[in-house]
Amino acid sequence: MFCSWPTRLSKRAALRSNKLRERTLLDISPIVDELAKAQTLFLRAADEIASQHWNTKPEAEKWSGAEVVAHLILVERGVNDAAKRVTQKTPKSFKPWQKMHLPLWLVRVRILRRKSPVPLVPALLGHKENMLNELRATRTRTLDFLEETQHRDLGAYRWKHPFLGSLTTYEWFEMIAAHQMRHGKQVKELARQLPKVVEISQKQ
Fold first, then answer.
1. Is pTM beyond 0.85 here?
2. CATH of 26-203, one of 1.25.40.10, 3.40.1190.10, 1.20.120.450, 3.90.1150.10
3. Three-class secondary structure of residue 142 per DSSP
4. How far apart are CA 6 and CA 102, in angstroms?
5. Contact 81, 159 (CB under 8 A)
6. Which of 4, 75, 107, 123 counts the highest number of beta carbons within 10 A?
7. What are the sequence ranges of the domains in the chain?
8. With b meaning 16 or more CB within 10 Å and e meaning fewer, what string describes 130-141?
9. Whole-angstrom distance, CA of residue 135 vs CA of residue 176
């Protein structure tokens, strides 16, 4: 049985459309890989903190594991919300010097200590597994956004980071990965400190 010309043409058009769509999909795999690596390393570090010590601080001015995770959730939610809002508009034009920013690797290292401009939300603090599940859910929303917008070039959209300078949408998601790696190191330090802190508090 032969297909009619309109049917055959429509099939060919569909195939061409699919191939064109495949060609125009942006390669976001490097960003996705970095996000996956950061998440894995962070969760591995968090595993080293016992659930009963999840809300324990090593010192009064330092964060507990719960506070670190709450901070990560808030920052990633903020980036997601900003990305969705900014990319719904026409991209703004920027002068070359307005696009300048510090290198993202500075976020990963813990040499420069800066107070976070994002205040903690006490309502986010809770049991360890609940908080880690919310962290995973937040990351899922990030990956969903990247996948849904893969047919668009979001590199023209940018907004300012409080310390680094002007970042593109993609650089903001790279920053999320670097930021999580930074705090993964913090959590590993915390896991080493907590047994001594708990031991001292029990003797007092």
1. no
2. 1.20.120.450
3. helix
4. 56
5. no
6. 107
7. 26-203
8. ebbebbeebbee
9. 12
Q: Hey, what are 28's tokens? A: 């976001």
Dist. CA 117–CA 62, nearest whole Å: 16
Tokens encoding 66:
């719960």
